[in-house]
Each structure stands twice: as structure tokens, then as C-alpha cells.
Amino acid sequence: MFSPFRLSTLALGVLLSGSLGACSTCPSGACAADTAMQTQVESRIDAVPALDNDDINVQAQHRVVYLSGLVDTMAEAHEAAAIARQQQGVRQVVNLLQERGNW
Asked: What is the domain count for the chain?
């Protein structure tokens, strides 16, 4: 049985996966900046061998970076969030990463 927290996290993930792909509401140039920011954060996470980056999903919208997926430890989740926070232009990081085995 899913806890209310896990269900809300899952619902948010589904919502983000459908809404972040469309940039029709972005001010001029904002979508390109978000896409570049997302790519840069993904690259920086990919450069860290300890992170199982295949299971980390990065989305950016309005300079907010959303991290979702599964990691081996919560320390990895915190490390991925720290990497995202270091990216120039990031206003906020929403860390929805979950530890494997806790589902």
C-alpha cells in the first residue's frame, strides 16, 4: 500500500512529466534557458560516478530544477540536489528522489 506522501510524490512526478515538456507559457527565451539548465545539470550529475544517473530524472521549469527517480542512498539524493543548486541560474531545487527499496 502506498503512503499519502508517496502517492503525492508519484502524482507530482506524473504531472511534471506531462507539463514540463510544453513551453507554450514560457516568456521569450525562458524555455531555451530552462532546457540549457536541465542539460547542464544532467551533464554534471552524469560526471559523478557514484550517482546512478540512469535513474535520476532532471526537469527544469522557470529556473526551478526538479529531481525525481531512484538512488541507492539518501546521501546520493543530497549530492544530486547540491549539484543542481550549484548550477548558475537555478532559483530552486525540488528534490523528489527516493531511496531504492523504500517503495
From this structure: 1
